[in-house]
Amino acid sequence: MENIIQVEYLDVKENKEYIDLLEKVAKECFKQEGIKTSQFYISITLTNNENIRKINNEYRKIDKETDVLSFPMFEKEDLDKIIKQETEYQDVLGDVIISLETVEKQRVEYGHSFERELAYMLVHSFYHLMGYDHIDENDKKKMREKEEIVLKNLDIQR
User: Are the CB atoms for 62 and 54 separated by under 8 Å?
Assistant: First the structure.
């Protein structure tokens, strides 16, 4: 079986339950988009607010913490072409960095489980890696619909 995620921990405690959840979510994301898991994997770093703030500042010049950062490896047009090809190797779809401290904070704020918030962070990031954004209202609507389908299929509710 291919690895569909690669998880690193940066100054936070390792947790197998996080990996199990993230694998399940990533697998459903790939399935919904018709992508073979043999084609891509997602590099995920779980960290704290201090580290994500530094990364946000370094790459986006925004000196504040955030919940998640997504760094796609491909432009949407290139990605669409690659997905249609038969490849014999697996490539990284992109890098995702999630602050577990902010996941916990938002879990409390939104009144749902840590697992739901962590799952949402990955689904949201996955669609950024796929070239979706939420700046334009139409794109935001498409992205939100796709996110909700994945979470509903996994029975991960608010």
Answer: no
94 close to 66: Cβ distance less than 8 angstroms = no
Domain over 5-153 is classified CATH 1.10.10.10: no
Which pLDDT tens digit goes with each residue over 74-130?
Answer: 998 898 888 888 777 789 999 999 999 999 999 999 999 999 999 999 999 999 999
In terms of Cα–Cα distance, which of 2, 83, 81, 15 is closest to 42?
2
* Contacts (Cβ under 8 Å, ≥6 apart) of 67: 98, 99, 102, 103, 106, 121
CB 2 within 8 A of CB 41: yes
Burial class (CB in 10 A: 0-12, 13-18, 19+), 53: middle
Phi then psi for 41, rounded to 5 degrees?
-140, 165
